[in-house]
Amino acid sequence: KPKPADFIFTKLAKERSFYGYLSAEKLNKDYKMVNNPIVVAPKAYKRLKRQEQFRVVVELIAVNKVMEARRQWWYVISKLNKSDILMAAKYAEELKWKQVAIYTIAKAKYWDDVSVRFPLAYKSQVQKNAQIQQLNPAIIYGLIRRESAFNKTAQSPVGARGLMQIMPKTGQQIARELKEKWKTTNSLFNADTNVKYGSYYYKKLLNQFDGNYALAAAAYNAGPHRVKRWLPTDKPLAADIWVETIPFKETRGYVSAVLTYALIYQNKLKKSALTMKNLMREVFPG
User: Fold this and answer.
1) CATH architecture, range 42-111
2) pLDDT tens-digit map of 114-127
3) What is the pTM of this model?
4) Catalytic residue among 94, 147, 180, 250
């Protein structure tokens, strides 16, 4: 006879989400991608692209005035209805404007076009550093997607920079450890440097926390010193319960997002090595 909880797990297992994937793991089911790409009418799409306001965006990109192009884009988007916003998201994807496409489709609250929401960009940098650090490339993709949504010039209010949002002080430390000459803070906007440093740093954290992906992700976001304080004090804790005990709401969301995104990217990369079981290992006392 099925347990009452099994009905909840079965329902959740149909979702492309953190708890959906945990439920699928519990029921020994495949992780769902729930991919329903946006369908646009060709004539309407051409008409949108020909609009003067969008042509201005393209011209600004062509002369490398990216900030001005972004401002123009969001001004135009603010005037559109939902169906036109969805077409605009596809247009941003066509322009290879990954972060803008991700944020535009979110404006329309449409979550099921996996191609737009989870692009495979910077593939050479990801694959190269995954091999160097002996990491699954899906984990690096999960980090990039959560940190910057593939905007190599991203800068946070506290100063983190680039695809994997490296703080300048952390970048200098990594350069010393790799015996590289530190150039400037702006070198973190270079995709090669940023992915190299971010991958190295995550692997360092993964080693520090005995191969526990959830702890390493939490440390990447909040710092290893905090994660050490958050470890259980007397007995091991299931990882999903431990995540819920993280006192920072941002870090709780960050860990669940990175690990979920990693499984989505694994599917896109046509791999299968990672599972929720090995991403969410039991958390032992510090």
Assistant:
1) Orthogonal Bundle (1.10)
2) 999 999 999 999 99
3) 0.96
4) 147
